[in-house]
Design brief:
single chain, three-stranded antiparallel β-sheet, six-stranded antiparallel β-sheet, mainly beta, 9 strands, globular, about 110 residues
Length: about 110
């Protein structure tokens, strides 16, 4: 099983979404503050709306930019806090396509395509 994952978010109809056909995910939207977190985190990535890369893991890895800290289960998803931006973001049940349980932390690297 992978411990580091990669997705390519992009904007569709004004919303941040991502596809991962191997996991049966097509145009999964980021909502509940996760969209705002992406807006803030991609401010220096040119043309991020056309697509950029998120590398993420429950374990620290060289070059990560953000650490998201688990706060609580909420509805069918989980809320994480970004100390860097001082905001919470909700991650939907698609999280469990990558992790068996909601990790205590998610380490994130953002890169241009």
């Amino acid at each position: 099983m992978n411990s580091i994952f990669v997705i390519k978010p992009y904007k569709d109809l004004g919303m941040w979404v991502f596809d991962d056909p191997e996991r049966g995910i097509i145009k999964e939207p980021f909502v509940g503050g996760a969209d705002t977190l992406i807006d803030l985190a991609t401010i220096d990535i040119p043309d991020a709306e056309a697509g950029f890369v998120i590398v993420f893991s429950a374990d620290e890895f060289p070059g990560y930019h953000l650490r998201l800290d688990w706060r609580r289960q909420e509805m069918s998803g989980n809320t994480y806090h970004s100390e860097d931006f001082g905001i919470d973001g909700w991650l939907c049940p698609a999280l469990f396509k990558y992790f068996e349980a909601a990790p205590a932390n998610i380490f994130v690297q953002l890169k241009p395509l």
